[in-house]
Amino acid sequence: DEFLAKEDNPNVYYMVSGTVDEIANESYGNLYLKDGDSRLYVYGTYPGWGATGDNRKGAIAANGIEVGDKLTVIGVKSTYKGTPQVNGGIYFSHEKAE
């Protein structure tokens, strides 16, 4: 919820955690995180800092991330078509669903 209130800024990084609710694009790691009543779109889950091009792909499969897992990413806030999102989340950690 706090993240949604932040201003869009390409130079400010936030750590965001939530339960993976839906994986929209496994290759690039586009997915939705749910935390309480909030649902947040993560536009890209990347394997590490500075990943570019095809190196940005594959973090979901490499880390075994599935719907129901808790995922933490670090990324900037942007807005796409009026909807706040994490733009380019850097994989930080995740916990498997119980």
Short description:
The protein is mainly beta and 98 residues long. It has helices at residues 2-5, 59-62; strands spanning 14-25, 30-35, 38-46, 70-80, 83-95.
Describe the protein's architecture and organization.
There is one protein chain. The protein is mainly β. The protein is built from two helices and five strands; from the N terminus they run αβββαββ. The protein has helices at about 1-5, 60; strands at about 15-25, 30-35, 40-45, 70-80, 85-95. Strands 1-2-3-5-4 form a five-stranded mixed beta barrel. Strand 2 (about 30-35) and strand 3 form a beta hairpin. It is globular and about 30 Å long. The protein starts with a helix and ends with a strand.
Largest sheet, described in full?
Answer: 5 strands, mixed, barrel
Spatial ordering of strands, largest sheet: 1-2-3-5-4
Care to count the β-strands? 5
Q: How far apart lie the N and C ends? A: 24 Å
Strand content: over 45%
